[in-house]
Write a structure and sequence with these properties.
CATH superfamily of the largest domain: Vaccinia Virus protein VP39
Radius of gyration: 22 Å
Number of strands: 9
CATH class of the largest domain: Alpha Beta
Strand content: 15-25%
Largest sheet: 7 strands, mixed
Number of helices: 12
Shape: elongated
Length: 296
């Protein structure tokens, strides 16, 4: 059977199985199975595909038809133009998260300190590091497997301005030390309610629940970061959070109540409010503390 015929049959099978991008999935799995570029497939698709290449491709298609994410089957995913290694221990990088990268870059000068919490594959940190070589970029994650993967991605991409370490959010940092202060803190934390029906659909069925689900209807980790991040930001530093498309009003309210200024939400590719950010101004913190003292 030719490459073209195999791809057509595979795309039809994946479409029936519910893949939203059946032809693209089939092409990506074919390139992974055979080591050939997609351009080669377009040019020489009338050639026969036989032996181990066909067997490997058909096995991958069978797994994808059962719902296995392409990024886990191939072991990589493109993000911000970077090829990142993936793992079942981490979330799969998604295009909507590039909104968070864009927001950070728009507010970053030539140098500074950047922290990505819950870094996973390192996607956000490495995308930023690739654009701002003068910045010190750090990524923290609770899972040792994620830290190791992010470090591998940094080495693979030659981004020596990015480092990664294990930590439960801010626990590995000491807020009184200058080395634990940052100009930009970003995070794509768990923000899905445990009862959300989307957890039983698509790729998220195979992704780690610990990276997806948070208590209090998905808000627990977001609110924790809002409360804690101020102790780790320089004066006029930014906190930027990715969240669910219905959570923006609550995250904005939490930032305002915590004393952040210039609070706003940004829309993703689907025109949903996906990222909310605020600026930590020392004067606002001092005023808040004065008011608390007066009330006691």
């Amino acid at each position: 059977m030719t490459f073209d015929a195999l791809l057509r049959a595979a795309a039809q099978r994946l479409e029936l199985a519910g893949s939203p991008t059946p032809r693209i999935d089939a092409e990506l799995l074919m390139t992974h199975a055979t080591g050939r570029e997609r351009a080669w497939l377009y040019t020489w698709g009338d050639r026969d595909c036989v032996g181990w290449e066909r067997a490997r491709f058909e096995a991958l298609i069978a797994a994808r038809a059962q719902g296995e994410p392409v990024a886990y089957l191939t072991g990589e995913r493109a993000f911000w133009g970077l090829s990142l290694l993936t793992s079942r221990h981490t979330l799969i990088p998604r295009a909507d998260t590039e909104t968070l990268v864009e927001a950070a870059l728009a507010r970053a000068g030539k140098s500074g300190r950047f922290l990505d919490l819950g870094t996973g594959t390192g996607a956000i940190a490495l995308a930023f590091a690739s654009e701002r070589p003068g910045w010190q970029v750090s990524g923290l994650d609770l899972r040792d497997e994620a830290v190791a993967l992010a470090a591998r991605n940094a080495a693979r991409l030659g981004l020596d301005n990015a480092t990664f370490a294990q930590s439960d959010w801010f626990d590995a940092l000491a807020p009184v030390e200058p080395a634990s202060r940052f100009d930009l803190i970003v995070s794509n934390p768990p923000y899905i309610d445990a009862a959300d029906p989307h957890l039983a659909q698509g790729d998220v069925r195979f992704e780690p629940r610990s990276a997806l689900v948070a208590a209090d209807e998905g808000l627990a980790d977001l609110l924790h970061l809002v409360r804690q991040a101020r102790d780790y930001l320089f004066d006029r530093g930014w906190l930027m959070l990715e969240h669910g498309y219905r959570q923006a009003p609550l995250v904005r309210q939490a930032l305002i109540e915590a004393g952040y200024t210039e609070v706003e939400s940004l829309k993703d590719l689907g025109e949903h409010e996906r990222v909310t950010l605020g600026r930590a101004v020392e004067a606002a913190w001092v005023e808040e503390r004065v008011q608390r003292v007066k009330q006691t």
